[in-house]
Design brief:
single chain, 259 residues, alpha+beta, OB fold (Dihydrolipoamide Acetyltransferase, E2P), five-stranded antiparallel sheet, 32% helix, 24% strand
Length: 259
């Protein structure tokens, strides 16, 4: 039985001398691994369609619930070169792919996540790659119910000039409330704490709500981008119990525009 769907390559791992195991996010089956036989031979029918972040129409042979169906068709719709032809783009897009694999159960349809990745890759360019990846991570976390709370203090609701983000709680606390529990970077009761300025919190909301294609117009300070990237890295590590291998905290400053 052959199943046809659209898929975006998230990971491609060599298997044996000439084969590849491809991990997709698909429109109809969610995260799905497929076995591409003889894909690394010179005359392979798959060509460049198995490059990471390539969007293709794919055909999978096997039962619908098979863990490893065979890939029998892969016709490129859009290659998304910007996501892999620069170090900045590759790291940013890889963090998106790794989060998808870490959060979404295999074989469970999630067209909303598929379209979120598709829209992000379509809008992303090299200059703003890290910004788009940040927006993607914010939106995917919210979609799965893991979004960090940054809209005012979780304790009293007040908005201030500076907050403290408690990683274990996934929420911000204002300076006044934080002073009552102690927020010196780490404490025994609440775990890791990250300082967050109000401007960074407002930028978080913009990244969560603006139309994806317009995010490149945002004027973002290096400090705000670095704060939010570090916050999300810590938040994701707490959720999935490990850091992302493709963390792009180090790139945060290099992709920001001066405010």
């Amino acid at each position: 039985m052959q199943n046809r769907t659209e898929g975006i390559v998230l990971r491609a791992s060599r298997f044996g001398e000439a084969d590849t195991i491809v991990t997709y996010i698909t429109l109809d089956f969610g995260i799905k691994k497929a076995f591409a036989k003889s894909s690394r031979k010179i005359k392979s029918r798959f060509g460049g369609s198995l490059e990471v972040f390539t969007h293709s129409t794919i055909g999978l042979m096997g039962k619908e619930d098979a863990q490893m169906p065979r890939l029998v068709q892969s016709d490129i719709i859009k290659p998304f070169y910007a996501a892999r032809e620069s170090y900045r783009g590759l790291v940013a897009a890889s963090s998106m792919a790794e989060l998808l694999i870490g959060l979404l159960p295999e074989g469970v349809p999630n067209p909303e996540a598929f379209h979120l990745l598709l829209d992000t890759l379509d809008a992303m360019d090299e200059a703003h790659a890290n910004l788009y990846a940040l927006a993607f991570r914010i939106r995917l976390l919210a979609m799965k119910g893991y979004g960090p709370w940054t809209r005012g203090c979780i304790r009293c609701g007040a908005e201030g000039r500076q907050y403290h983000f408690y990683v274990s709680q996934g929420a911000v606390v204002c300076a006044t409330c934080a002073s009552k529990v102690g927020a010196a970077g780490h404490d025994r009761q609440h775990g890791r704490v990250i300082a967050l300025l109000q401007g960074s919190a407002k930028m978080f909301e913009a990244l969560a709500t603006w139309e994806m294609g317009k995010l490149g117009r945002l004027k973002v300070s290096q400090s705000a981008l670095a704060e939010l990237t570090g916050l999300l890295d810590a938040h994701i590590e707490h959720i999935i119990s490990r850091p992302l291998k493709a963390s792009h905290t180090a790139l945060a400053g290099s992709t920001a525009q001066s405010a």
